[in-house]
Amino acid sequence: MPHAHGGAKLYHLGWRINGDSFDVALAVNRVLAAGGRAWRLHSTSNQLDAGDYLIELTASQRTAVAGLGLKSTPWEGITRCACCDWALTTGRAMARRFRTAH
After folding, report:
1. Domain ranges within the chain, ordered by starting residue
2. pLDDT digits (tens, 9 = 90+) for 69-97
């Protein structure tokens, strides 16, 4: 199950709620470049759309994301979905399937 590490917390960063803005991809790219982690959702659930991200953000990163005009919401658990863990160091994606009781 994706979980944030260090002082970061897990947030949902969605395309639809952010008006399909390219700033969503920019924010994810910048967090990954800073050593953070993000998971792109491959399937739609009742709370998440395919293509949305679960992303770990520190308080200052969340402020920066908000500064782009993007909305992110805290995420406590994951419904059944397939996520993609972007491995920044290798530049390759590793597919993983996550599941909780939510």
Report:
1. 9-98
2. 999 999 886 544 444 443 332 233 444 44
